[in-house]
Specification:
Layout (H helix, E strand, L loop, with lengths): L5 E6 L15 H16 L4 H6 L3 E11 L8 E10 L5 E10 L4 E12 L9 H9 L1
């Protein structure tokens, strides 16, 4: 998924499915968030540590296109690519595809920012440096 992309393989658990036997639409946001958190860990960004420093990473918008459904036991991959959208906004382009056929399941753009101790949008220096390299 690009030079600075990240992928995470996961599997559907029974309790994530609704009465129709497919993954509930809200669960996909959990998959996307988990992949973003794991991606940040690989970049050396720790949510808990940032919070202790008075910096809160927050989601401000989520756009999701649902392409097909996953069912219990399906294996899938979540891909993440991060891009700076403005001086204070970050875009996470994310795709979920079923494995092994790589069928598109979800395409998403998750927009976020960081809030400083005063609650104002401000990207931390560590994140700015990562975005410059991307």
């Amino acid at each position: 998924m690009g030079q600075d992309g990240f992928t995470l393989e996961m599997a559907v658990r029974d309790y994530e499915c609704d009465m129709q036997g497919v993954v509930n639409n809200s669960v996909y946001q959990n998959y996307l968030e988990h992949a973003r958190h794991e991606y940040f860990k690989t970049l050396g960004i720790d949510f808990a540590e940032m919070t202790k420093q008075g910096i809160n990473l927050v989601v401000t918008r989520v756009e999701i296109d649902y392409k097909t459904s996953l069912v219990s036991g399906d294996r899938f991959e979540v891909a993440v690519r991060m891009e700076q959208l403005s001086p204070v906004r970050i875009g996470f382009y994310q795709d979920i595809c079923r494995l092994p056929d790589r069928k598109a399941v979800v395409r998403a753009l998750v927009t976020g920012t960081a809030l400083n101790a005063k609650g104002r949008p401000q990207l931390p220096e560590a994140l700015k440096q990562i975005l410059v390299r991307a």
